[in-house]
Amino acid sequence: MHADEQVCGLNPDSQFVELAVEVFGMLADATRVRIILALRNADELSVNHLADIVDKSPTAVSQHLAKLRMGRIVNTRQEGQRVFYRLENEHASQLVSDAIFQAEHALGGTPRHHHKEND
User: Fold this and answer.
1) pLDDT at 7 (0 to 100)
2) Helix, strand or coil for residue 12?
3) Which domains does the chain have, with CATH numbers?
């Protein structure tokens, strides 16, 4: 394969399929999904604030954040002793949103995300 050739990432034979599986594996944890949901509407949050939101210990949240950071899903900013986390981009948030929407479909009926805002 030539380095200058662009392969569509959405083709079944894409070189990105295995990496996508790794992303799904990274997100296959309820605490990590909750962290991403908490960060999607915030510019950035500290470990302690995230721990309060997801109802886990700061140590546990810090371990999950380290994995998310290694997977380039979150990024950090340090201010003195405090570290603040933010989503690296909108894609993890969109993946989690879509997974939640799919879960709503699994319950049957018309999922909440299909209702008009004025209803």
Assistant:
1) 58
2) coil
3) 17-108 (1.10.10.10)
Give residue 27's identity as a one-letter amino acid code. L
Alpha-carbon span 75 to 66, nearest angstrom: 10
Residue 13, token pair as written in the block: 């034979």
Mark out the alpha helices in the chain (DSSP H runs).
Answer: 17-27, 30-40, 47-54, 58-70, 91-106
85 within 8 A of 45, measured Cβ to Cβ: yes
State both tokens at 35.
């962290």
Q: 78 by DSSP, 3-state: which?
A: strand
Nearest to 19 by CA among 62, 87, 72, 77: 72
Amino acid 73 reads I
State pLDDT tens for residues 72-85. Answer: 999 999 999 999 99
Q: Which residue has the tokens 């200058």?
A: 4
- What is the amino acid identity at position 72? R
Report which residue type is found at 7. Answer: V
Q: What does residue 40 show for φ and ψ, rounded to 5 degrees? A: -65, -25
Read off φ and ψ for residue 104, nearest 5 degrees.
Answer: -60, -40
pTM for the model: 0.83
